[in-house]
Design brief:
Chains A, B: This is Transcriptional regulator, TetR family. Chains A, B: It holds the Pfam family TetR_C_30. Chains A, B: It comes from Pseudohaliea rubra DSM 19751. The structure is a homodimer. Chain A is built from ten helices and no strands. By secondary structure, chain A is mainly α. Chain A folds into two domains: about 50 residues, Homeodomain-like (Arc Repressor Mutant, subunit A, Orthogonal Bundle), CATH 1.10.10; about 150 residues, Tetracycline Repressor, domain 2. In chain A, helix 2 packs across helix 3. The first copy, chain A, binds a DNA duplex through helix 3.
Chain lengths: ~220, ~220
DNA sequence: CAGCGTATTCAACGGTTGTTGAATTTGCAA
DNA sequence: TTGCAAATTCAACAACCGTTGAATACGCTG
């Protein structure tokens, strides 16, 4: 059920990550988590304290790594672009590809982790409590870069476009397999390369349309 | 807390709708719902049976009305367009505007209902169980229409673009107020007209970019 | 092997959950 | 008013929840 050689503390995080991503915070029991980790119930409390602290520990385990990967991708494309700055597509690519890479790792934990991010980002309850603490600084950096690539954009238009990007990304991270059913098997949620290969030009075209000079809405 | 003149059965649905939208299925107690409705716990079971049946009753109450409104909007723009068929923007408008209209009603129940739709659409657990039953027929009609407006589009590209549209819409329906914080008050989640006025050209440009003739990804 | 701190389990607690059957109230027809 | 069915409440059930303190096992240093 779970790799019995890993340290128990990690196994609890793994199990919590997966189950929280699938059923949400209230849909999962500490006893379910413990059973999946092959561990006694009380051990979760011993290592993490209250249930809510375990929930947050799951986020913090991978947050720094993920933010660094995305920030480095942005800085790299900025460095390569030089004076003129990177193109819209390059910025969006820097924002999205690190996620695809993480999802395609052998470590399935990343898939669960990003599905969990999708869960809180879409939740009116958790979203305000957790998203800004985790991602605000990084997102503002990207919006800054997008503004330079679209010099005529109004500030508010950039934020609305970012919300559209964030929503499209969130649904892909959630891995609901809805597109599998809808397309009759023609598209598969698990085909992440196809997902991002379609998302990047889609989103870039949207930004350009809405944020180009003197665009009338 | 809740309009005491409405029939109790409706008040239970109202309370369930609002609380489920905010906290999800497992995050809400039948006792919380009953208290909010000003009613005894057992009454929910009397009217709806198990908790899961109440959950589904919430969806079915407004599903037919919503699907009819969107289908009529599509048929209307198809009728007006005549031979050539409606433009991409007109189809997307028919898909989205009925939602904006519902959200802007005095009836706040619609806002909660659509936030609940966002919750299940983004959930790996509920999505497959509920979305296709509720919306598949309607969505296929829209994809059909989109395919006619983009005659060179490959079938799979249409579905991937629809997923991007669905994601952007879902995050807006969820009403998480994240954009309010992120933009420092410049944009407000509650400003639905601004949300849809930005979403429609954004999405239309994305479809065109990805689905136009011989586009290379 | 002794000793000691950490990791893990055991057993139990008070509180809450969904659900139910019986009792009570309500609304309306005869 | 009586009678009867639908609506609503009351009281209680077994099951499960998160959490805790004490007891046990483990892993290391001396």
């Amino acid at each position: 059920m779970e790799d019995q050689t890993r340290p128990r503390r990690e196994r609890i995080l793994d199990a919590a990550e997966e189950l929280f991503a699938l059923h949400g915070y209230d849909g999962v029991t500490l006893r379910q988590i413990a059973r999946r980790a092959g561990v006694d119930v009380a051990l979760a409390n011993y290592h993490f304290g209250r249930k809510l602290d375990l929930f947050q520990a799951v986020f913090e385990r991978r947050a720094a790594f993920l933010n660094n990967a995305r920030r480095e991708a942005l800085h790299r494309c900025q460095g390569e672009a030089g004076e003129t700055g990177p193109t819209l597509e390059q910025i969006i690519e820097a924002f999205l590809r690190p996620l695809e890479l993480a999802q395609e790792t052998g470590d399935t934990g990343w898939r669960h982790y990003l599905a969990l991010i999708a869960y809180i980002n879409n939740s009116p309850y958790w979203g305000p409590k957790m998203m800004s603490h985790l991602f605000d600084a990084l997102v503002q950096e990207f919006i800054e870069a997008l503004g330079k690539a679209l010099p005529d954009a109004r500030r508010e238009d950039l934020y609305w476009c970012y919300q559209n990007l964030s929503g499209a990304l969130t649904l892909t991270l959630a891995q609901t397999r809805r597109i599998d059913n809808l397309s009759g098997g023609l598209c598969r949620s698990a085909d992440l390369q196809a997902a991002y290969d379609h998302m990047i030009p889609f989103v870039a075209a949207g930004f350009r349309k809405v944020c180009s000079s003197r665009a009338e809405l």
